[in-house]
User: Fold these one by one.
Assistant:
Number 1:
Amino acid sequence: NELGKGVTSAVREAVRQGKTSFVLRSDICLRESAGKGRGWFTTTDLPAGTLLLVEKPVASCMDCEMYRYKWGNLGSADSAALTVAVSSRTHKPGVLSIIRLMHPSEAVPDKDDSEEDRDEEEQAEHEKMQADMQQAWRQSAAHPSEWDRLSSVIRLNSIGFYTNNEHVMGFKERYRACTGSGVYGLACGFNHSCRPNVARFCIGDAAFFRTNQPVPAGSELYMSYIESELHSAPKSIRSEALARDFTCSCVACEAEELTDADKGYLDVDVQFQAELKTCPSQQRIDILQGALKGKVEGVKVNVLGKDAQELRCMLAAAHEELGQLDKALRAWAQALSWAAEHLPPFDEMIVSFAVQAAIVASRSGGVVIAKRWWRIAQEIHEVAFGGGRLHFELRYKGEVESQRPGGAQGFSMGDVPVAEQAPRPWAVVAEEIGLVARAA
C-alpha cells in the first residue's frame, strides 16, 4: 500500500545518500495490519531460523553518550538522549522523511512521566532534560508544530541494541560499552506480540531479525517489545512493561484476564543483587534458596519467573565459588527447564544457560552430560543467530575461557561435532532439554 511504499522509498533514498543501510528479504512485505496500522507479512512459508532483516539505525545514541547528560540516570533518559541525537541529524537527507512516516500520527503523552514520583533533585534534572530536547529541536530541520509528535515517534519506535546481552557471565565487563538505542526505518514495522514469531539480536547497532518458528505464508511477523522472560508474567505486569500507546491483543493477552499487578513481588534489582554479593557464599545460597521457595527473612514473597531466573544464576555462581559443581549444575538445569517451558522457541537465553551447564558439567568430569548441553546450545544458536559453528565458538569463547581454570578437565569447544541437518522442531528440542535437565 501507499504507506509501505512511502517508508520503503524514504529508506531507499537514505541508502542512496549513504545515510543508512539494510538487507531485507524479498518475500516479506509491509502492509496494513487490522487494528495495528502497518506490519510485516510473509508471502511464502518461512522455516525457523530464517533471516528476515539486517538493519543499521537511521540515528542512534550509545548509553555512554546518554550518561554524559546530568539527567542521564532518569528513567526516560534513553528516549530523551535518542531524541536529541535524532533531531541533530534531521538536516541529513532522508532522516526527517523517514521519521515523519512513522507511528503515531499525533503526540502521545509519556505514561511514565509523572511529577508525583520525582523528588526535588529529579524534578530539576527532568526540567533540564526537557530544556535540552527543546534546544535540540530548535536547531533541527523540523517545524515547531512537529516537535511534540516527533518526540513521541522517537520514544515509541526506539529499539535498544545490546551486543551478546544473553551472556550470563561477563556481559557488563566485555560488551556493556556497545549498548544503546536507535530508530530503525524498517524494523519499526514489526508489531508486538507476547507470543512473537520473530527474535532479534545485535552486533553493535546492527540489528538482525530472524524467525524463531515456522511461519506460514500470509502470516504477520511479530517481535516482542518486552523482555522474553516477562512473557510468563501476569498480563498486568506485561502491560506495565510494554508502556505503549496501545493495548496488546495477542493470543496470550486475549486468553488472560487483567488482574492487579501488585502481588508483593520480590524486587530483584541491582541493589538487592549487590547486597547479596557482599554476603559469604553459603549465606548467599541460603537466602537465594529461600527466595526461590517464596520466603525472604521469614516473609512470604512472590517471585516473577524473570527474577527467579536471576536468582538461579546467582545460586549457580555461589555453588561454583564453593566448588559445589554438582549443585551448580542442578541450578543451571533448573534455569534451563524453566526457560524451555516459558521462553519463546529457540530463545537466545537458552543458548547461554546451556553453555553454562556444559562448562560446569565439563569441570566436574561429566563429559557426557556436558556434550549433550553443548550440542543443544549449538542447535538453538543456529536458529537464533545463524553463522554456523564459527559464529557459535566466537560468541562464547570468552565465557568458556573465563570459567575454565588452568588444568580443568573436560573437552574443548572443538571436541563436539555439529550435526549438518535442519533444526529439529522446537517441541523435540524442548523435550530433550527436560530429559537432560532431569539427568543432571
Number 2:
Amino acid sequence: GNYKGSLDAFMKIIKNEGPGGLYRGVVPTIAKQSTNQAVRFPTQFYVMQLMCGDNKERMASPIFNGLAGAAAGAVSVLVTMPQDTIKT
C-alpha cells in the first residue's frame, strides 16, 4: 500500500492534505453510525422487554443483557448493511 503503518499514514496525510484530510469521509461515517445506533438501542430495549417482561432480576442479568445486545447488534447490521456498503 501507500503507507508503512498508522503513523506513516498520519504524517503523509497531514503533509499532503492538511488536518482536514484526516476527516475525509466523516459525513457518511457519522450517518452510518447514527443510523446503526438509532436501530440498536430501541431493538435492545424491546428484546429485553420481550425476554424479561417486568422481572427486574432478569433485567439486571448479564446473560439477558448480552442476549439482547447480541440480537440488537445483529438487527442493526442487517438494517444498516446497505448504507454501510454504499459508504464503503
Number 3:
Amino acid sequence: VLSLPIMTSAGGCTLLTETIFNTIAPSAAAPYTYNGFCTAISAWNAANPTNQIFEEGTEMQQKHEIAAFLGNTLHESGEFQ
C-alpha cells in the first residue's frame, strides 16, 4: 500500500512528492508529468479561490481524493503516456 503524505511545495502541489508520483506513473510523458500535475493544480486553485482542488476536508479525505483522481486519470490516459 502506497502512503500519500501531505507535502507542500512552492508550485502549489500539496499532496504528494515527485518521488511518489513517479512511482505511481513511471512512464508519465508531458503534459502528464509531476510538474504538469502541480502546474494544473496551481492554475485551478488560482482561478478558483473558493473551490480549491485537494484542499478541503481532513487529511485522510484529501488522500482519498488524490488517490481516486490519480487512479481514474491513470486508467483513462493509458497511464499518463
Number 4:
Amino acid sequence: VIMFYVEAPTNPDFNSVLLSMWWCTTALTTVGYGDIVPRSGVGRFVACIVAFIGTGMFGLFAGILAEGFRESFKKDRRFRKG
C-alpha cells in the first residue's frame, strides 16, 4: 500500500492498490516479472527495501531449517563419527 501512495501520482502502472500489492508480492518472492516498475526515486528506494526484506525472509527460514537438521543429526547416533 505504501508503494501505491508513493508511485501512483507519477506512475500510471501503479493505478490501484491491488496492482501495487501484486508488485510487492513479486518483489518479495524475488520473481520480479518487470511488468510494473517504480520510476520515482522514493519508489525505487522502497523497492530496494522490499527486495532486501524478501531475500532476508528466505535466508532466515533457510537458516532456521538448516539448524534444525544440524541439531537432529547431532542427536542421532547413526551420524556420529567414531
